[in-house]
Amino acid sequence: MSDDIDSIKAEVKKLNAQATQLKMDLHDLSEDLPIGWEKIPEIAEKTFKSYQQLTDARKRLAAAGG
Question: Which CATH class is domain 1-64?
Answer without folding.
Answer: mainly alpha
